[in-house]
């Protein structure tokens, strides 16, 4: 899939194990995770608290900063309490095994690859070989844009999202191909979020003004569709229509969350006989697009001006 999930045993960060070479492996791994995946904190915040303390004890400022960058980028995701109070590395790996049996964790790292039966564990030194390429290679898949494939992509990309932005010029929700896609997104967004605060996920559709499309009554029709989705899925959805005559980047379509960004050359609507390349984009490119399509403060030199906003409160 496009985004990878990683779990690292806290024992990796123990000062007796984490040599300078291993710290370098971790720094490179954290940088790859920032663009291509998520780091899992098991037992809610317990893993995060343990690892933060161990990294602090290492007194390695570069490792500390890259770990902080992951947290700042919301790339550390909390998993539900397991019922196990971990006392050692085996306990942590058994918690990971339970999660892995339900929802595959792509990469699990430990101090020893054979501590627990039934899961595949890697050691940091393997990052020097083929495993390092697998962890660092930007995700890129090509597939038909049918509902089955898009559902897999949306479940992978949106499961930890609180906010989603669709940037797709002709994503008009009164058309079945776009509406069906939006319904899958609404079903997928935020499904793995662990939080003590109940916040409805939010989806913002950014489409472009097309004169022959905006006939009398179209905005009322969209409002009715949004009301039904919000009632059935519990997701807040907003549509922003942009006047885009001067906007230069018309070719790629983007799906941004509060954590990650992906692009598709052929859009995110459902067309069974059309294929597209889907790939992740860098954190920097995601940030740039968020600024350009900021619904409150759009970038003035982007060539975009807001024409309509449709929002149900």
Overview of this protein structure:
The protein is of the alpha/beta class and about 325 residues long. Helices cover about 35% and strands about 20% of the residues. It has helices at about 20-35, 45-60, 60-70, 90-100, 130-135, 145-160, 175-190, 220-235, 285-290, and strands at about 5-10, 35-40, 75-80, 105-110, 140-145, 165, 200-210, 235-245, 255, 260-265, 270-280, 305-310. The chain has an eight-stranded mixed sheet with strand order 5-11-10-9-6-7-8-12. It has a four-stranded parallel sheet with strand order 3-2-1-4. α8 (about 220-235) links the parallel β7 and β8 (about 235-245). It is elongated and about 70 Å long. The mean pLDDT is about 90.
Determine the strand fraction and express it as a percent band: 15-25%
Largest sheet: 8 strands, mixed
State the share of residues found in helices, binned by percent. Answer: 25-40%
Q: Structural class, please?
A: alpha/beta
On the 0 to 100 scale, the average pLDDT is 90
Computed Rg: 21 Å
For the largest beta sheet, what order do the strands appear in spatially? Answer: 5-11-10-9-6-7-8-12
- The sequence of SSEs as H and E is EHEHHEHEHEHEHEHEEEEHE
Q: Spans of 5+ residues with little confidence (pLDDT < 50)?
A: none
N- to C-terminal distance = 34 Å
- Quaternary state of this entry equals single chain
Shape: elongated
SS field, number of helical segments: 9
Number of strands: 12
